[in-house]
Amino acid sequence: MQFNEFYNERTGLTVGIKKVLFSESTPYQKVEVLETDTWGNMMTIDGMVMLSEKDEFVYHEMIAHPAMFAHPEPKRVLIIGGGDGGTAREVMRHPAVTHVDMVEIDEAVVRASKQFLPEVGAFDDPRLHVHYEDGIRFVEQVTDPYDVIIIDGSDPVGPAVALFSESFYRNCRKALSGQGVLTAQTESPWVGSYHPAIRNLFSLLKETFEVSEMYLAFIPLYPAGMWSLAFTSRGIHPHDPDVSERVEKGTMRMGSALRYYNRDIHHAAFALPGFVRDILE
Ligand code: SPD
User: Fold this and answer.
1) Could you tell me the distance, in angstroms and rounded to a whole number, from the CA of residue 248 to the centre of ligand 1?
2) Which residues line ligand 1 at a C-beta cut-off of 6 Å?
3) Distance 241 CA to ligand 1 centre (A)
4) Environment class of residue 207 by beta-carbon count within 10 Å: exposed (0-12), middle (13-18) or buried (19+)?
5) pTM of whole model > 0.85?
6) Are both 177 and 107 inside the same structural domain?
7) Less Cβ around it within 10 Å: N or C end of the chain?
């Protein structure tokens, strides 16, 4: 049995499947967990890979740590999406964190992860508060601001389309504290059909935030293996000397818990190839 995710006509990713472990059509999407022959258990949503046990560390370290180290004292963190718990796990490696709100629209994602991806989420940590709500509505109603916001949504189809909208990011900016930092997943630069969404998103981030930068990570099970993310803030830049110092000390402290992110990756991830820069222009 094979799983295929086609990202351009008949071109895409193939993964050998041993068994379907979980398959549920929820009011929002189809959630599946498949036992693969190479990548451990793998979660898909509407036929698109969200994570596998073997490669999830890249995405979760890279969506969490650039923001978490950029902020001088990230106490309160909001994660929109991220129901598998991997982003929360990385966030909670930071000792300053006192409170994490994770807003996942679909409880089936959390249920399937707890059962079939048990090593991914840190659901027992008392700092983590899981809300089964629409993240768009949640950010509209924030009264106690967050130091870091992370948008760990799925691809811009179905319920995640609004996670690429201007009004959502305006509300996120309002929900950030004075030195707030936000990161978001922003799709593969190799998939032409996503270029309009990527260009549009970075143009609105530039208008909404004082700092907005794209950065990259290499994730084998995502379309074409190259993935883009956004770093935005109300003033802090990822290459600020204070940030570099925090990254240096913090990554040493975390040691082998980090398997992708390190001091050099933190800075190098912001170097963009010409064809990626062209998407943004
Ligand atoms: N095409 C893959 C996009 C995945 C974005 N979110 C993944 C969730 C992992 N926590």
Assistant:
1) 27
2) 48-51, 59, 82, 84, 86-87, 152, 154-155, 185, 222
3) 31
4) exposed
5) yes
6) yes
7) C
Identify the active-site residue in 55, 101, 147, 152.
Answer: 152
Model pLDDT for residues 129-170, shown as the tens digit of each residue:
999 999 999 999 999 999 999 999 988 777 778 888 899 999
Q: Are residues 174 and 258 in the same domain?
A: yes
Q: Is residue 152 flagged as an active site residue? A: yes
Q: Ligand 1 center to residue 86 CA distance, Å?
A: 11
Task: Give the structural domain span for 27.
Answer: 2-50
Residues 113 and 173: their CA atoms lie apart, in Å, by 30
For atom 8 of ligand 1, the residue with the nearest CA is 50
- The CATH number of the domain holding residue 205 is 3.40.50.150
SS3 170: helix
Q: What is the pLDDT of residue 158?
A: 73
105 and 28, same domain (yes or no): no
Q: How many domains does the chain have?
A: 2
Query: Could you identify the atom of ligand 1 that is nearest to the CA of residue 153?
Result: 6
Same domain? 144 vs 43: no
Written as one string, the DSSP assignment of 36-100 is ESSSSEEEEETTEEEEETTTHHHHHHHHHHHHHHHSSS--EEEEEE-TTSHHHHHHTTSTT--EE
CATH of the domain at 45: 2.30.140.10
Give pLDDT, residue 255.
Answer: 97
Give, using CA atoms, the residue closest to atom 9 of ligand 1.
Answer: 50
* Nearest atom, ligand 1, residue 56 CA: 9
**Same-domain check for residues 37 and 71:** no
**Which residue puts its alpha carbon closest to atom 7 of ligand 1?**
50
Are both 190 and 145 inside the same structural domain?
yes
Q: How far is CA 110 from the centre of its chain?
A: 15
26 and 74 both lie in a single domain: no
Which 3 state secondary structure label does DSSP give 121?
coil
Question: How far away, in angstroms, is 44 Cα from ligand 1 center?
Answer: 9
* Mean pLDDT score, 19-43: 98
46-103 pLDDT, tens digit per residue, is: 999 999 999 999 999 999 999 999 999 999 999 999 999 999 999 999 999 999 999 9
